Amino acid sequence: MRDGQNSVIYRADYQAPAYWIDTVDLCFDLDPAKTRVLNKMKLRRNADVAPQPLRLDGEELNLSRVLVNGQGTSFKIDGGQLVLENLPEGDQPFELEIFTTCAPVKNTKLMGLYVSNDSFFTQCEAEGFRRITYFLDRPDVMASYTVTLRADKARYPVLLSNGNLVDQGKLDDGRHFARWVDPFRKPSYLFALVAGQLVCREQRITSRAGKEHLLQVYVRPGDLDKTEHAMNALMDSVAWDEARFGLSLDLERFMIVATSDFNMGAMENKGLNIFNTKYVLASQATATDTDFSNIESVVGHEYFHNWTGNRVTCRDWFQLSLKEGLTVFRDQEFSQDLAGEASARAVKRIEDVRVLRTAQFPEDAGPMAHPVRPDQYLEINNFYTVTVYEKGAEVVRMMQTLVGREGFARGMTLYFERHDGHAVTCDDFAQAIADANPGSQFEQLLPQFKRWYSQAGTPRVTAVTQYDEPTGEYRLTLSQSCPPTPGQEHKEPFVIPIGLGLLAADGSELTSRMHVLTQASETLTFPGIDGEPVPSILRGFSAPVILEHAYTDAQLLTLLAHDTDPFNRWEAGQRLAVNRALAFMGQQAMPASDIRLDQPYIEAMRSILRHPTLDSAFKELVLTLPAETYLGEQLQEVDPQRVHAVREAMRQQLAQQLQADWQCAFETNSDTGGYVPDPVSCGRRALAGMALTHLCLAARSGAHSAGPGQPDVWPGKAYQRFKDAANMTDRFNALSALVISGNELAAPALQKFHALFKDEPLVLDKWFALQAGQPDRGGNVLPAVKQLMNHPDFNIRNPNRARSVIFSYCSANPGAFHRPDAAGYVFWSERVLELDPINPQVAARLARALDRWKKLVEPLRSAAREAIARVAAKPDLSNDVREVVTRALA
Ligand code: ARG
Ligand code: ZN
């Protein structure tokens, strides 16, 4: 291994760069096998730092020439870095010219410059620019870029880079060129270029401020009819950021380009966002409602980065949540504001919390736990996590809760006044919010509040209540604690905003307020309460904590029926389900098929399903049982197959006991008219799909319970709906109903689905994912997954396709993956090792499928450890995978 590839980087070691780069003039001769890059920079020493050699980052580059002020110079390569020792003395700027080549077609890591479908794309965040040229590849070095692209005109007619197109024309030999100038200084991670055969949808807009802009969405020819939704989302994003935060688009031209080979979701390169096709392309025939809503979020997210990320960027990568947490918060608010009505906003909030609790809470309790602002990393790509993104967004949300919406907007304004054009820290952001709200509780609590950035782990808040009948005094004691995480044994108390309400026994609301918990334990007193109330605690999920309270079933049923806070209303239903699942799992000896849900619970679910005024989307959320991973987190020791069996048995009970209600729900929600992905019709389609699944499940046992509902007709109806559906949501839901219920019609439906969509890669991803994620029946899924990997449409080098098969099995199908014979783990270790040399980022994500191995029951636990050890034993692992498996075994 070369120097610099093995060492852990610490936040505490931050040092300002020894040189600044003021301008960069890049010239590319694009060729898949050998692209030539001429990089002309103007540099100067940073006078604040002791004189030292210039060390430029580089990776997989072929260096052919280095000139300083036009003259040849001595240099050495050390640990991959280009080191220049004999530079001009003094503070005078000097010019450095570096000539290198690279091989984009061989770039399977998809970092730096790579080829996808015979087009060129780049991905530079976090450290991909060094794979394009030697550079100070760190976010606090901000330069002005001029970029010239040269390529064969017929093969690469479209040539794009950041900023404004200033020149273009013909060259000899059928080649052409384009020159782009970015008017804003930027760090190298925001550089981008695209070249290829692309077409675009265009839209001219006039901003609130009266400025004209050109918006463009570039895709492959043939996909243009799937760009309308992304363009609408982009226009909505521009308008929203102006209206909500007074932030306008600062470029004449703003481009989005889609590529089918992409490691993550999308990238906010200045003026030239590059997207995974999954988050751009949508038509009613090929995309589900979920796809439409994800596109809206991701388009918003990347656009909002233009201010929170690009205009103000990160000083170093430990500050990643400065831009990611804040921008996720902004995209969540954007989607809520577009959803409009309070009930639709609440649905979005519940969905966001569900992601946090099923993905981030386990991360925060496992070997990869890290603070929102990490203190160390081996490979920064491993820290693009749900903690940095989603928990980071919750931290920003708590700030808004504490200072109010207006106070928060003032804080944002001050943040940009102070830091526009600079690379700053999470502390700078929190300070701006505090300083814009002088005299506020937040300002006073700021040092303690910032523990959310420094302490990892999910805090637990325990609530204990006491009611004194004679005096009518109600006491609520809230205590907090936080379990140890790697490297952090002891935690100090957090600042925890807790939304509180009290309901009378009849469900009417007695009082509501926000309490800010700052001590390890505090007692609140409510005088004059007539009869013991039902507490509604942590309304709106006001903080990313685990709330422990010994709710009785009666209290939960009251909250489910009456709470004015939709989040806690939903949460009450989840708690009822969790309590039942845990009770069943406690009865080890009971076969899952003997599980019977009690009538009060069934009736509560029935009254939600039959409720005359609740939104269909909300009903669907309430009727969805907690995820297997979420249930697993509630246990000391997990047997994923038992968790799966119990949850499936509960679902089967809901299917059978509520059969008539599902039928009614299906009938009243199944026709949503002409396709529009608005919250109301999406909710209706979601509930209809859920009903269909349950009706098909009920049909499974229907032979015995054939009654007025005639359950056995439903698989046929589902098949018919699958064939006739006018949109992908209904079609896919019908297909899923057949697959999930294990019906014999699933096979012909899957075959037909493949035939219909064989030329639609994103739809094929769904086809693969559905099969790899299907409920296990006697260990049938792993053989099916292996077969899918032999399918001619499978390609492990394409991240979306690899995820649709391998991740859908290893990371999203615990009941099928955690096999007692350990064959799932063997498969996992083979795939991690197969992927690592191809694409370490994707391999490292997969490696995390066994994060929680220490919680598994034997013999799974030992088998999982062995599988991880087998991966760890391989020499030459990437930093990415090595960091994940080393931490897992620690
Ligand atoms: N900044 C991008 C976003 O969240 C993510 C890019 C991450 N890429 C990576 N290779 N780690 O919008
Ligand atoms: Zn982002």
Average of the residue pLDDT scores: 97
Beta strands, count: 32
Q: Separation of termini? A: 22 Å
Radius of gyration: 28 Å
Q: Given the helix and strand composition, which structural class is it?
A: alpha+beta
Oligomer classification:
single chain
So how many helices? 28
InterPro entries: Aminopeptidase_N-like_N (IPR045357), Aminopeptidase_N-like_N_sf (IPR042097), PepN_Ig-like_sf (IPR038438), Peptidase_M1 (IPR001930), Peptidase_M1_dom (IPR014782), Peptidase_M1_pepN (IPR012779), Peptidase_M1_pepN_C (IPR024601), Peptidase_M1_pepN_C_sf (IPR037144)
Pfam families: DUF3458 (PF11940), DUF3458_C (PF17432), Peptidase_M1 (PF01433), Peptidase_M1_N (PF17900)
Domain Peptidase M1 alanyl aminopeptidase C-terminal: 553-890
EC number: 3.4.11.2
Describe the overall structure.
With 890 residues, this protein is α+β, with helices and mostly antiparallel strands. The two termini are 22 Å apart. The structure holds arginine (ARG) and zinc ion.
